[in-house]
Design goal:
It is built from four helices and no strands. By secondary structure, the chain is mainly α. The protein folds into two domains: 1-38; 48-93, no CATH class. Keywords: Membrane, Transmembrane, Transmembrane helix.
């Protein structure tokens, strides 16, 4: 049975938690800078500070989301199955 795109995206995010948080941070900074540059009457330093604060809030939300995913993976046993699959496939060097 083929995975849906949502399942495939979820699997990628579970495997690459830090990379997905970093991508969210980068897109948050870019989006916030673009939004702040469209607002007239703000100094450049204030625009950069606002962009950093917005991106920091997005990053905290993403880390909280990653923690929730980690908790449910641990609770459901999916994480142990993933590690068992990895350990079974690696060759032993005796």
């Amino acid at each position: 049975m083929a995975e849906s795109k949502i399942d495939a995206a979820r699997e990628w995010i579970v495997e690459h938690k830090l990379r997905s948080v970093g991508c969210l941070w980068l897109s948050g900074i870019a989006g916030s800078i673009a939004y702040n540059w469209s607002q007239p009457g703000m100094k450049t330093s204030v625009r950069i500070i606002h962009a950093r604060l917005h991106a920091q809030a997005l990053t905290l939300a993403a880390l909280a989301g990653a923690a929730v995913v980690e908790y449910y993976d641990h609770k459901s046993g999916a994480k142990s199955e993933r590690y068992a699959k990895f350990l079974e496939s690696s060759p032993r060097k005796d």
